[in-house]
Amino acid sequence: MLSAFTTSKPCRYAIDMKVAHECESQIFSLSDMHTHEVSLHSILFTASAFKEVCQGAEFSLLTRFHLGETLRCIQQSLQDKSTATAMATVGAIVNLASAASSFGDIETARKHMDGLCRIFELRGGVSPFGTAPLAEMKCQRIEICLSMTEGRKPRLLPDIQIWDSFMPISAIYSPPESTFLNPRNLTPDRRLLSIWTDLQYYSRLSNEGALIPPELFLFISTTLPNRLLQLSYDVQSTSELMRLCMLVYIKSILFSLPGVGRRMSYLSNNLERALQTFVPLDREHSTFLLWALFIAGGCIFEDFDGEWQREAIRETCKALGVTNWMQCRELSNTLLWIGDIHDPSAKEGFMKVFEAI
Question: Per-10-residue mean pLDDT for the chain, 357 residues long?
């Protein structure tokens, strides 16, 4: 229960922003629920499926019934030109894709998104929806999840015109009294620095229990991962490890259900290679490596069983003089870290690594 209320959820802030500026019918297209059978079944399936997955249960007969009815109605709608591109059809497919991506069923999510992209082509793009912009945000979120899994540039998101930070330019340079690690010592790339600054600001607000500006959350959940997925660096560079770890950090906020990280093969494979080839040059780079090992282990690998992981953590802790979890947490907190999200898995991993000695 505590996790349900303290974990940042995309819909919470997206809805907050829309409610503040638009009427209810523009957000959800509620009329679809009583005029289109497909909308009702897809909503009931999604709600029931999420509940059962969170409880660790198999899909019930009722959940499977609503899934079957949703698929039947979608197939029926796609065979009729007048309903093939209707918002009710789009919304139902979005719900199925959202559920599949959240449960880690990447193949099914990809098939749904491929179908949606074809529908969007017929509609003239994503933005011309005019109603129910929540569907647009969900589509973009799912595309980001798939892109993190496959290592490709997201579809359905606008081209990057500028690389400005959400924060003022002055915020990119940490003040002398700041407790955060200075990212300028890790990379000279201003694009990475601006992204790091926005994520660091989000970390600070989250750890302080402050209200997250809806615009900031949407910026972090769509714009920033899109930017990171457009970049690439040498696999042995600090910049590449920094880019990958920022994607992991964003993933930990947006897609937190167990098992999703392990299925993100692009992030998993590239992180393993980057972490094993990274050689810290000084204390700050060692601190960065320690953080990277724990955020990757907790959010992507979802375990600390690899011998190379354990050895790297032990060696890095020794170099930093870290002998207990609280010291490790204190160092991790100088980078991108949200206690409610990252502490539990990292603490468990730390104990497992050092109990195995």
Answer: 42 44 46 72 91 87 95 91 82 90 85 90 64 72 91 85 70 57 91 94 91 87 93 94 98 86 93 95 96 97 94 97 96 95 96 82
Tokens 């990277």 belong to residue: 292
Residue 162's H or E segment, with its range, is: none
Rounded (10°) CA dihedral 189, 192, 194, 200: -130
Contacts of 14 (CB under 8 A, 6+ apart): 134, 137, 214, 217, 218, 221
Whole-model pTM: value is: 0.83
Helix (H, G, I), strand (E, B) or coil at 295: helix
For the chain, how big is the Rg over CA atoms in Å?
Answer: 21
The rounded distance, in Å, linking the Cα atoms of 130 and 174 is 41
Question: What CA dihedral angle connects 269, 273, 274 and 276, to 10 degrees?
Answer: 140
Give the whole-angstrom CA distance, residue 267 versus residue 277: 15
The DSSP call for residue 173 is S
In SS3 terms, 50-103 reads as HHHHHCCCCCCHHHHHHHHHHHHHHHHHHCCHHHHCCHHHHHHHHHHHHHHHHC
Q: Which helix (H) or strand (E) holds 262?
A: none
8 Å CB contact between 231 and 243 = yes
How far is it, in rounded angstroms, from Cα 265 to Cα 327?
Answer: 31
Alpha-carbon distance of 250 to 336, in angstroms, equals: 10
Between the CA of residue 35 and those of 41, 77, 239, what are the distances in Å? 12, 13, 51
